[in-house]
Amino acid sequence: MEKRLQGVRWCVGLLGISAVLLFISVYPIPSLLQWQSPFLSRCFFILMVCFALCLVRLMRGLTPADRAVAVDTLGILIVGFCAILSIPTGRDWYIDIAIAWALQSFIGALALAKYLEGRGFDE
Amino acid sequence: MSEIIGYIFIIIGLAFDIFGCIGLIRLPDVYNRLQATTKCVTLGTCSILFGTIVLKGVSATGIKAFLCIVFLLLTSPVAAHALSRGAHISGVKLWDKSVCDQYADDKRGKA
Q1: What is the tens place of the pLDDT at every residue in B46-67?
Q2: What does the alpha-carbon distance between residue B23 and residue B36 come to, in Å, rounded to a whole number?
Q3: Which residues does chain A have within 8 Å of residue B92's beta carbon, measured at their own beta carbons?
Q4: B56 touches chain A (CB under 8 A)
Q5: Distance (Å, rounded) from C-alpha A19 to C-alpha B4?
Q6: Minimal Cα–Cα distance from A87 to chain B, Å?
Q7: How many CB atoms lie within 10 A of CB B49?
Q8: Which of A101, A99, A73 has the alpha carbon at shortest distance from B18?
Q9: Which of A77, A66, A48 is nearest to A116 (CA)?
Q10: What is the interface pTM, i.e. ipTM, of the complex?
């Protein structure tokens, strides 16, 4: 009985995620923010789905280590977000934001790892 | 032609990103989830940045994206290793169907 319930949950999740991806790739999106590239606005919505999945793990995470992993992944996804944002707008300082965000995500991950080990920051 | 190649790299990166995030939801254990999301970093985001380089060519955006790729490849394995070590030390249990735990064996051998 338990195993059948798990199978049903698996199928529902697979159907949901594939339905969202199909909706994003088929539905005619009217070019976000007056850009001339509907392809890149579709990429944006796919990254939004990734953010939503990370936030679900951040809320549900059973242990503090799960939440730390989710925060690290969210920071790396934002780097990709800034890189895509720099293509249609043509502004190069979005990549500067991406580099700074990667740096602070790295330092934040190290600080979270120190906190998980139960040591102080100056040891 | 270079536009098509850059868009193909961006599509590959987005596919790795979304599979990594599905793994973050789906897998049963902190260590398994960390293993899925590290692929999402190196192949996903670095592939998106490489697509940006191909689209923009040798300009300010392209060179900064190259620097960002080098920085990510240097730092993200270190962060993932520190996080997994911190999780193991803080006492997060492995999944009950896990096969071996060599770090715990090492610590037991030392003590």
Answers
A1: 999 999 999 988 888 889 899 9
A2: 6
A3: 63, 65
A4: yes
A5: 26
A6: 7
A7: 28
A8: A73
A9: A66
A10: 0.86
